[in-house]
Each structure stands twice: as structure tokens, then as C-alpha cells.
Amino acid sequence: MRRPRALLALLGLIAAALGALAGPAVAGAAEPPSFPVRQGVELKGSPTFDRMKARDGVVVGVKEDQPGLGAIDVVTGERSGFDVDIARWIAASLGFGEDRITYKAIASTNREQAIMNGDIDYYVGTYSITDGRLRQIDFAGPYLTTGQSLLVDEDSEIRSERDLGPDTKVCSATGSSPIQNIKAELPDVPTTEFDVYSACVEALRNGQVDAVTTDQPILLGYAALYPDEMKVVGEPFSVEEYGVGLRKGDDVLRAWINRLFADHPRTWQEIYDRNLGSTGVTIPQPKVDPYRSGGAAAEADGSDGPAAGVITDNLDLWGQALRNTLLLFLAGGALALALGFLVGAMRVSPVPIARTIGALYVNLIRNTPLTVIFFFFAFGYPALGLPTPGYTVLAIGALGIYTATYIAEVLRAGINTVPVGQAEAARAIGLPFTKVMRLVVLPQAFRSVVPPMMSVLIALLKNTTVAAGFSVAELGVIRANLSERGEDSLTVLLCVAAIFVVMVLALSAIQRVVESRWRVAR
Question: Looking at the predicted structure, is the pLDDT value of residue 415 above 60?
Fold first, then answer.
């Protein structure tokens, strides 16, 4: 059943944060299975295997928030799931037992980079084989074929993807194939993205989203974890092939793993039955496709590195990200200026209560980290049961309310540069406080605060990237989306930096023009 929405904001914040960080508990996890450890293994020509031998151990990238596939018991630290057992099986075939395996939890957005950097030897964690990823890495397999489905509240009227529309919010992991499929096939459906699926499930439980979408086995694991609260609906509406992510060009290791899958179907079936058999969904072992999973596919794609036209080849994503960044900056700036002028005036008001309120606002908000303010708007505010206008609007509110404190202090400093005698003279001729500020003080204060005011606005522009962590598709999150298309992460980040430099230079040019016109005569 859906939980009551009228929860305290703090409880909503803590629940979401803990759900994202800790992942689901796996109560009563069984002892990990034991696979025969092969002795005397030699893989000549495999740099990855040479690295394993040198350290006398294997480092495997996994997920730890997907019951039935890749999960960790937060009490015992035991790992379980179909993907984890596949990783153990591969390690044993290479000569490494459980005591020589190091597991690393890698978020979806960082998988390719972790493999290319050599942070992990291979990755097993619901990793779909796509043409974009094959530009950067290789895959062994596939070892599981499945499809994308929907997880909804037990009382939801959503029965399949055909019921999704502009009024239904769908959540998935940032940079994952499912969220890209929703954006491409159902562009009118609003989406929310988090680094891990457990955060999406927590958002569903709190009523912040209407559905979670990813591959069916993942959703079945969560439905089994919360059987009275949520359910999986509809038939799979995509085809996803899971592969083992490997460093590009390591054909020897890739061929070894492919032979392991092809030659031991009984072991594969035992792993499946142990972890996913209880879901009632029967999935046969897929046939290994060495051409789809490795070098030949990359050659057919015509790309053996980061795409030269990282911007021109992805104008749709760059355009959306730039529009959202400018929207956050312009709307957040307008809110900050309006609120900042009001608070700044309150700070110098002759009315004691107004000064007190202004000081409390500035000291409270300015001393709170921006990320915490975003967390409140993303998780605490919806938990109050108030209408939720969407993460973009909430991000504008967070940026505006935070930046207004700096605007207010800059304006107060400017007001203090105006000689006191001018305000006293204005009041002496009968002008009320509002007209004294509007006609006498503020016009002069503006002239002296142009440089610091523009610095605050430049900081606001750069602060828009914080919204990337809260499901707003702006420039700060584009790396994850372009990584899905196979673009090099470093190239994308350099492009993002260049765009911000251009925008900041434009603001600096505007500052010089305004200063030249409003310069105070000395």
C-alpha cells in the first residue's frame, strides 16, 4: 500500500538519502556458492589477466542495490545475486577463489571509465551491450537476455508502457539504457534520474514518481522485496542483452569468458535457478555472440575512439542541456534578484522586526550547503504532501532562495556606501521609507555593486550544475547521457568546461558595459 504522503520533510529526506546510500537489505542471504577454482591458468596476450596475476587477485565491478542480481547484506557484508555469481564463476575459471576477489560497486554512469582506467578487471552488473558502449569497451557474452518493464505502486492504474503520459513521472538510473529508451520512444513522459535504482524505488514508495523502469529481473527483485507495496506490470517492451564489460582490445580474455559460457550451460542454469528461479520467470541462456560483443562490432561502427564531432553528432542532447542550464540561470537569477532586493531592504529597514527577519534568513540559508537545500526541495518538500511542480521548478527555487542571500548582502553593502545624509534629507521632505529606497538610495547603490553582483550571478551559473544530481538534464549531467552513446567522458567534460567559459566571458562583457555606463565619478 502507498505510504501516507503527509510525512515530515526531514523524515522524507533521511529516508531517501539512506535508501540511496545503503541499498536494500538482503535478509538471510545464503552462503556464497562454491565454484571449482581452476589451477595453472595462462592467458597469453591478455593484459587484464597479467594484471590479475601480478596482484594475485581480481577486481570486479558490480551493483549492490539490485535484489536477485547484485545486492549486499548491509549487516553481514555478504554479496548475492545472479550477476555476482556470474562474476564468481568467471573468477574461479581464471584461478581465483572467493578470498581473492575484490568487489567494487560502480554507478551506471561510471562503468566505461572504470574499465578504461583499469580500476576494475571486468564488470558484471546488468550491463547492456550497446553500439555506443562498444566504441569504448568490449563485452563477453551475452550471458542474459531480458527486456525493459515497469515497477509501479500496488494501487497504480498503470498496466503497461501505453499508460504512460505527460502526467506520469518515470524514474531510472542516470546513464542507463532504460532511461534513454523512455526519452527516445516516449518523449512526452517526464523522467527522473538517480545514480542507483534503489533511490528510484524509494522515490516510488514515497509517491514522488509514478513508475520505475529498468530491466524486468531487476524490478522483480524489488517487487519481491516489497510484495505489499509494489508490482511489476506489462510485458517487456525492449530487448536488452547483458554482457561482461572488458577493457577494449583484450580479445584473449573475451574469448575465454565466451567459451566458459558456451561450454557450461548446466552451471549457468544452476546460477539462474539459485537466484532468479523463485521469480517464476523462465529465461533461457542466450547464445554467445562473439561478433556483437567485441572488436568486429566496433569496426562495423566505424569508430575506434571518441567521436570527433562530440557536439555536432549529439546536438539534441547538447541543445536540451544548454536550454535547461540557461533556464535555471535566468529563472533562478530573476528569483534571486527579486528576493535579494526584498531581503536587502529588510536588512537596512528602520523597523526592528524586518531587520531581524532579514538577518535570520541570510544567516540560516547562506550557512546551509547548497546541496542540502537541493535535498530538501527534492525529497523533503514532496514529503510534505504539497503539490510537486517538477524537479526543474524545484531546482529553480533552490538556486533562487540560496543565491538571494548573497544578492541581499551585496545590496546591503552598496546601500551602506550611500551617504546617510541623503536618506535623512529625503525623509526630511516627507518621503516614506519605500520611496527613499526606490528614488534615492537604490539608484546610487546599484552603481557601486555591479562588479560583486555580477560575481554572484557567475557563481549562480556554475551552481546550476548541482541540479545534475537531482534529475535535471542540464550541462552537468550530459556526460552520463553521452557516455551511453559512446562518447569519451573526458572529451565531453572539456566541452562542458568550454561552454561555461564562453558563458562566463559573456557575463563579464555585460559587466564591463554596465560598469562603463554606470561608473561612479571619483
Answer: yes
Which of the pair, 520 or 193, is modelled with greater confidence?
A: 193
Task: Indicate the residue type of 74.
Answer: V
- Can you read off the three cell numbers belonging to residue 376? 530538501
Residue carrying the nine cell digits 564468481: 88
Same domain, 491 and 410: yes
The answer to the question of residue 306 being in a domain is no
pLDDT at 299: 47
In the chain, the amino acid numbered 192 is: T
Largest CA distance in the chain: 98
The whole-angstrom separation of Cα 154 and Cα 365 is: 39
Q: In what order do the strands lie in the sheet with 170-173?
A: 191-194, 170-173, 211-215, 148-153, 230-233
Q: Do residues 134 and 283 both lie within one domain?
A: yes
Number of neighbouring beta carbons within 10 Å of residue 7: 18
pLDDT in tens, 201-259: 988 998 889 999 988 888 888 888 888 888 988 888 888 899 999 999 999 999 999 99
Question: Whole domain around residue 225: which residue ranges?
Answer: 148-233
pLDDT of residue 515: 78
Judge if 132 and 159 occupy the same domain: no
Contact 383, 12 (CB under 8 A): yes
Cell of 117: 582506467
Distances (CA, A) of 337 to 153, 474, 518: 41, 22, 19
C-alpha neighbours within 13 Å on the C-beta side of residue 17: 15
Residue 471 is predicted with a pLDDT of 60
Q: What is the pLDDT of residue 305?
A: 42
Give residue-wise pLDDT tens across range 137-172: 999 999 999 889 999 999 999 998 889 998 899 998
Give the three-class secondary structure for 126.
coil
Following DSSP, what letter does each residue of 65-125 receive, concatenated?
EETTTEEE-TTT--EESHHHHHHHHHHHHTT--GGGEEEEE--GGGHHHHHHHTS-SEE-S
Residue ending a domain, among 233, 258, 291, is 233
Q: Please report the pLDDT score of residue 298 as a whole number.
A: 47
| 3-class DSSP string for 364-379 | HHHCCCHHHHHHHHHH
Contact between residue 87 and residue 124 where contact means Cβ atoms under 8 Å apart: yes
Residues 296 and 436 occupy one common structural domain: no
